[in-house]
Design brief:
Layout: H1 3-15, H2 17-26, H3 30-44, H4 49-54, H5 62-68, H6 74-85, E1 99-103, E2 111-115, H7 117-135, H8 138-141, E3 144-147, H9 174-181, H10 196-209, E4 213-217, H11 221-244, H12 255-262, H13 269-278, H14 283-286, E5 292-295, H15 302-311, E6 316-319, E7 345-349, E8 355-356, E9 366-372, E10 380-392, E11 395-403, E12 407-408, E13 415-416, H16 417-430, E14 438-443, E15 450-456, H17 465-473, H18 477-485, E16 492-496, H19 500-510, E17 535-538
Parallel strand pairs: 3-4, 4-5, 5-6, 15-16
Antiparallel strand pairs: 1-2, 7-8, 7-9, 9-10, 10-11, 12-13, 14-15, 16-17
Helix pairs in contact: 1-7, 1-9, 2-7, 10-11, 11-13, 11-15, 16-17
Length: 549
C-alpha cells in the first residue's frame, strides 16, 4: 500500500481544520453566524447595480433586507444573466464573474448561474468541515478514493464570459485540488471521455488496479450501480490490462486523454491473479478496504440507494447533503445533515408563505429553501423542499424531500413542467397538429427508470414521436447525461384512445384533490398512468400524425 494517498489525505484534512473549527463553533449560534454572512455579502456587493438598486449599503438588519429585496426566481434574473454573459461587469456582484455555470431550467433547457471567487469560497466553507469529519476515520485516510462529482462540461465561448467548468475540481481551489489528485484512484481527465463504454472501462480499470480503494463519492447511486454492472461485460479485457499494465478501451479515446490515462500504469500480475480468482460478481471482495460510499439518498434517490446498499453488503452508504448548482445547503456531519450556516444566507418559506430564518425552524417542519449568495443570487427561490429531522447543536439537520417547483428528478435529470411543456408544444407545432391531451410522466416499467409520453389521439402516431421528443428533452444537459450513462431508459409513447382528461381528473380525485383545483400539467410526478388511461403502447407505426379532431 502506497504511503502517498495517506499523506495526501492527511494534508487535505489538515488544510481544512480551520474551516472545520469555525463550522463547529457556528453550529451553536446559527442565527448570529447567518446575520454575519448576510452582512458580508451585502458589504461586498454594495457597489454593484443590484446593491445600488436595493440599497445594500444602508441595510442594517435582516428584517430590512427582507423588506427591501423581493423573493426572486430565475426568470427575474434572465436579463441580468444575458448582460453578464456579454461581458458587462458589476451587474449582480462587485466581484468579477469568472464563469456561468449551466443547470437545468424550469422553462428553458438550462439556467446559467454566475460563479465568482466569493461563491467558490462559500462552497469550500461547507466542503472543508465535511472532509475533516469524513477523514477523521483512519480507515478512510489510509486508502485511495474515487470522486466522481459530475460529468465534464466543456466551456463555451459564445460570449465574453465562458459557460461551464472543465470539471468540478475547480470548486476545491488549486492547492486542495493538488492534494486530492494524489489520493485519487482514477486520475483527472477521465471525465473528458465522451464515449460511454470507453469512459466506464477507463474508470473500472483504474478502480480494479486500486486494491486499497477506501472511499467512493458519486452523486446519484445508480451511477455507481451501472458502473459496477459493466464489470461483467469487460471483465477479461480489464484483468488482462491490469496484468500487463496496458490500456485498451473498447472505443477510441482522444490521444491526450489516452496519454494521461496510461501515465503511471505498470503490470500488476499479483492483483490480476486475485481478480481472476474472485470474478466480476464478488463486488465487495474486489475492494476489501472499501469502507464508505457517499451518494444521494433522499427524495427520489431513495430507491436507487437501497439497490446499491444490497449490492455492497457491509459497506457504509452515507447519504449526501443537499447540494445544488446555486448553493451548498447541507452537509453530512456527525451522522446528521446540518445546514451549511457559514456558506450562504438562508431563508425558509413555510406553508403559510412566511420567510423564516434558521432560528425559527422547528423539528418536523417542512420548508422551501431560499438563498442569498456571493454569486449574485438575492433571496432566490431554490425550489428544494426540506424537512427538519433534528438539530446539531442549535443548527437544524435537513432531509431533502423533493423539488417544490414542478420538477421531477428520478436520477438527477431535473425535468420541469415548464421545460417539458415548451418541448411538447414545439414537437406538435413542428408537425402542424393538435392533440387534446399530452403529458410526460415517470415510468416504473422495466429495470430502469424512464419516462412515458401519454398522448390522446384517435389516429395512429408517427414512429419517430418518441425519438423526436427524446431529442428535445436532451436539450436539458442533465437529462442527456442520464440517458448517456444508462441511468434512464429511452422514452416510450402510450396512445390514449379517448377520455384522457376525465381519467386524469379521476386519479387526482382519488388522491384527495378537489376537481375544481385540478389543473392540466405537461409533466406529472405520478407514475403508472397507463393503468388509468385506455390505450396502447406505441412501438412505431407508419401513419403520420394528423389532427385528432
Amino acid at each position: 500500500m502506497s504511503w502517498l494517498p495517506r499523506l495526501a489525505n492527511e494534508l487535505w484534512a489538515f488544510s481544512n481544520l480551520e474551516r472545520h473549527r469555525r463550522f463547529v463553533r457556528a453550529l451553536d449560534r446559527p442565527g448570529k453566524v447567518q446575520e454575519n454572512v448576510l452582512r458580508s455579502i451585502l458589504r461586498r456587493n454594495a457597489s454593484c447595480e443590484l446593491g445600488r438598486r436595493h440599497g445594500f449599503a444602508t441595510i442594517d438588519s435582516v428584517a430590512a433586507f427582507q423588506s427591501r429585496v423581493p423573493l426572486t426566481s430565475y426568470g427575474d434574473l434572465a436579463a441580468d444573466i444575458e448582460r453578464i454573459h456579454s461581458g458587462e461587469e458589476g451587474v449582480r456582484t462587485s466581484a468579477r464573474v469568472e464563469r456561468l455555470i449551466p443547470s437545468s431550467g424550469s422553462t428553458s433547457a438550462r439556467k446559467l448561474l454566475p460563479c465568482t471567487r466569493s461563491l467558490l469560497a462559500e462552497f469550500q466553507r461547507a466542503i472543508g468541515p465535511w472532509i475533516v469529519d469524513l477523514l477523521a476515520r483512519a480507515d478512510l485516510r489510509k486508502g485511495r478514493a474515487y470522486w466522481s462529482i459530475s460529468p465534464a462540461i466543456e466551456p463555451e465561448h459564445d460570449g465574453r464570459i465562458p459557460i461551464g467548468f472543465a470539471d468540478d475540481g475547480e470548486y476545491l481551489g488549486r492547492w486542495t485540488r493538488f492534494l486530492v489528485e494524489h489520493a485519487l484512484a482514477v486520475p483527472s481527465g477521465v471525465e473528458r471521455i465522451q464515449e460511454i463504454e470507453a469512459f466506464r472501462y477507463t474508470v473500472l480499470l483504474h478502480l480494479l488496479r486500486a486494491r486499497d480503494l477506501a472511499l467512493v463519492s458519486v452523486w446519484h447511486p445508480s451511477y455507481f450501480t451501472l458502473l459496477l454492472q459493466a464489470l461483467t461485460h469487460h471483465w477479461e479485457r480489464l484483468v488482462q490490462d491490469v496484468r500487463r499494465g496496458s490500456y485498451r478501451p473498447p472505443a477510441e479515446v482522444p490521444a491526450l486523454v489516452s496519454k494521461a490515462m496510461v501515465r503511471g500504469l505498470r503490470p500488476l500480475p499479483r492483483r490480476a491473479d486475485e481478480l481472476d480468482a474472485l470474478g466480476p460478481r464478488a463486488i465487495v471482495e474486489l475492494w476489501p478496504e472499501l469502507q464508505l460510499v457517499s451518494c444521494w439518498g433522499d427524495g427520489p434517490a431513495r430507491g436507487a440507494l437501497e439497490e446499491l446498499r444490497a449490492l455492497l453488503p457491509g459497506v457504509e452508504i452515507q447519504p449526501k447533503g443537499l447540494v445544488a448548482t446555486e448553493a451548498f445547503v447541507s452537509l453530512p456531519f456527525r451522522g446528521a445533515h446540518p445546514l451549511a450556516v457559514r456558506s450562504h444566507f438562508f431563508e425558509f418559506v413555510d406553508a403559510e408563505g412566511r420567510a423564516l430564518l434558521v432560528e425559527d425552524l422547528r423539528a418536523g417542519g417542512e420548508y422551501t429553501v431560499v438563498v442569498t449568495t456571493g454569486g449574485g443570487l438575492a433571496r432566490y427561490l431554490l425550489g428544494d423542499r426540506v424537512r427538519v429531522t433534528g438539530f446539531v447543536g442549535r443548527t437544524p439537520s435537513l432531509t431533502f424531500l423533493g423539488k417544490d417547483d414542478g420538477v421531477v428528478d428520478q436520477c438527477g435529470e431535473k425535468l420541469s413542467d415548464g421545460f417539458v411543456a415548451g418541448r411538447l408544444q414545439g414537437l406538435f407545432t413542428a408537425q402542424g397538429v393538435q392533440v387534446p391531451f399530452a403529458m410526460v410522466a415517470p415510468s416504473r416499467l422495466g429495470t430502469k427508470p424512464a419516462y412515458v409520453l401519454y398522448v390522446e389521439s384517435a389516429r395512429e402516431l408517427p414512429p419517430r414521436l418518441a425519438s423526436d421528443l427524446e431529442a428535445l428533452l436532451e436539450e436539458n444537459p442533465h437529462y442527456r447525461w442520464c440517458i448517456t450513462l444508462g441511468q434512464l431508459a429511452p422514452l416510450r409513447v402510450f396512445r390514449i384512445r379517448g377520455g384522457a382528461h376525465a381519467a386524469y381528473c379521476e386519479r387526482l380525485r382519488t388522491l384527495g384533490r378537489k376537481l375544481g383545483d385540478v389543473k392540466p400539467v405537461s409533466l406529472s410526478a405520478l407514475p403508472d398512468w397507463e393503468q388509468w388511461f385506455h390505450g396502447v403502447w406505441v412501438e412505431g407505426v407508419p401513419a403520420p400524425l394528423r389532427s385528432a379532431r
